[in-house]
Specification:
This protein is an alpha/beta fold. It is built from 7 helices and 7 strands. Strands 3-4-2-5-1-6-7 form a 7-stranded mixed sheet, with helices on both faces. Helix 1 crosses helix 2. The longest helix is centred in the N-terminal third of the chain and has 14 residues. About 40% of the residues are buried. The mean pLDDT is about 80.
Amino acid sequence: EGYRVLRTNMAFTDSGPGRGAFAVLSGGAGEGKSTTAFNLAYICAQQGEKVLLVDADLRRPVQHTILGVSNRFGLTNVLLRDVPVEETIKTTSVPNLHFLPSGRLPRTSLGVLDPKRISELVHSLKLKYDIIVFDTPPLVGISDSSVIAKEMDGVLLVVQYRKYPRDMIIRAKQMLDTLGVPQVGVVLNNINNIK
């Protein structure tokens, strides 16, 4: 039910009726952003929307293991202009849900996430899909997320309860504020043990 609420919140962004590209971010690693991104994409697809899940965590991709597909070609190949995006997008066993794997990170990853190429890619994908969900690397310490977030219609910040110091969460929020990206909400994970 929590993911359905998130989907509803997306409808209140500046982009209109919850359409467009959204990034799922976290301050640090292991806070549950990949699980959140997958479940959100799944819920949107279940509601009949044409959805693309993009694994943009190039250093630690996991979506291909969740979906049980190859990660040989994907986002990195598209951004390096090795292959057209249509050749890297995969259908899944979930109706309406398509998947763009991260692809293998080349030895020299410098410039793979070029802001202009990301902008062009996001723009072209928004013409083909109702919802695009980007699973990104952690915000703090890696510039990749900022490059991606800048092109989004909205972002979700995932925070795992008491995993990192409060200062890290504040820093992540400040980074999003600086980027000026609409923030759809915050997902608080692992709170079952609160006494």
